[in-house]
Amino acid sequence: MADVSVATPSRQDGGASGSEAVLQVRDLEAWYGESHVLHGISFDVKPGEVVTLLGRNGAGKTSTLKSVMGMIGRRTGSVRYEGHELIRMPSDRIARLGIAFCPEERGIFASLDVRENLMLPPTIRSGGLSLDQIFGLFPNLKERLGSQGTKLSGGEQQMLAIARILRTGARFLMLDEPTEGLAPVIIEQIGHTIARLKSEGFTILLVEQNFRFASTVADRFYIVEHGKIIDGFASSELQANMDKLHTYLGV
Amino acid sequence: MSISLPALSAQLLVGLINGSFYALLSLGLAVIFGMLNIINFAHGALYMMGAFCAYFLLNAFGLNYWFALILAPVMVGIFGMVLERTLLKWLTGLDHLYGLLLTFGIALIIQGLFQNYFGSSGLPYAIPDQLRGGVNLGFMFLPIYRGWVVVFSLVICLITWYLIERTQFGAYLRAATENPALVRAFGINVPRMITLTYGLGVGLAALAGVLSAPINQVRPLMGADLIIVVFAVVVIGGMGSIMGSIITGFALGIIEGLTKYFYPEASNTVVFVLMVLILLVKPTGLTGRAT
After folding, report:
1. What pLDDT digit, counting tens, does each position of B93-121 carry?
2. pLDDT digits (tens, 9 = 90+) for B250-268
């Protein structure tokens, strides 16, 4: 089924379909120092959806996530989450509204052991996964609790990075390239995890280079190029859009 | 050469006392450097303020040593937090040189003001009644106050170590030292933590100042003289390691004490000679992490 808000993702009016969106981004622009990285990003994410931002390296996908999270110094436009305007909010307050971010470089702390890394993000509301549930999802972590965070394998570090934000009670997760550099069997495990989280009602905004992986987990896709959303379609429209997609992504 | 045990132990005790001050001060410097990325050249002036605080609490308000031990670190710590909020916060993202200039300038202003009002000679501060006198250990006479300073400093150092290495607040602190932006994105108010951390480091300096008041006199330049050696201690130990600062502080105090006994001519320079030697072999300091 074609989705109305998907068909015209770049429109500027922020119209009626936005009312049901949990995250509503309009005309988002952002700067790293002098460098203008986002040039008017507009998109919606609805409750319980998995939405993936696709695009080439340097297109502005990571910058979009960081702008939503308030981690980029200068940004304009509008980012609304559950009715709160985030554009002027510092990132610690944004996190307290229930948005959690898993960075591309994973951000595991070397001076903390695995348990400390896992327990680091404060609980922001009830309803987060218990440690038992987390160890059910990622059994490897339980055996490595005493290890230094950065001594884990790449796959285990990724699991730790996802696990620690599931504890906090945040219901909106932003995952930046969770499969980057990982073995196929681990990518599969992360795919199962995302599907499981979706079935439990989490809303997920994903950035991926791995299109094959994204196509297995996402409900909708947006294409980012030169700091703008240039197209978007639902998972069901994927086959019909393959040619366009190859052009966009250069794959 | 024959060794005189009483003389040797007396110098060792002096070394341990100095080591206590080195440890407390370098610990604060390490905590501040880790979190704020600032080499706090105002540390000596804040140590001096701790001693003056004790002096005023006693002479203006009649509050004795034991009150000063708690109140002076709190008061100077609050002063430090105001400094951080009004001045130091602007240093974020700037080169280390700016931090050096600003904190050194603050130190000069504070010391200058105190010198203007109190001159350069020292004000006396009496040893509290409960800690007067001494014990004869057989091989040496131990003044109780000096023993107290060593033990109390060690306890404070270990509490600070525990706070940073074993508690949730410490985990926030260590994580924010590595990646403040991400810690903030987890919902932790990192700017407030930075202010508290500066207050903690400054409070440790003020505490050392109170401990020192009955031993050394309360003088406006008492910190300026000490802080040069403390920076050498920090360079030797390596910035950023808590236990490293504590151990290096005490160890260098002892080495200095031993040098005073065996080769007094070198006692003022031994720390700097060691610094040069260690930097030649290990440029990040003994416990420093290469970055």
Report:
1. 888 899 999 999 999 999 999 999 998 88
2. 999 999 999 999 998 888 8
CATH class of A1-98+208-251: alpha beta
Q: Return residues 120-179 of B near A (CB < 8 Å).
A: 168, 171-172, 174-175, 177-179
Residues of chain B found within 8 Å of residue A109, distances taken between Cβ atoms: 174-175, 178-179
| Complex ipTM value | 0.89
Distance from CA of A210 to the nearest CA of B (A): 24
Evaluate the CA torsion angle A54, B183, B188, A131 in order and state its sign. positive
- Residues on chain B touching A165 (C-beta within 8 angstroms): 186
Tens digit of each residue's pLDDT (9 = 90 or more) over B173-228: 999 999 999 999 999 999 999 999 999 999 999 999 999 999 988 999 999 989 99
Name the token pair of B131: 């800690």
The CA distance from A144 to B244, in Å, is 26
Residues of A in contact with B189 (CB under 8 A): 92
Confidence (pTM): 0.88
Q: Please, what are the domains in chain B?
A: 5-281 (1.10.3470)
C-alpha B127/C-alpha B58 separation (Å) is 12
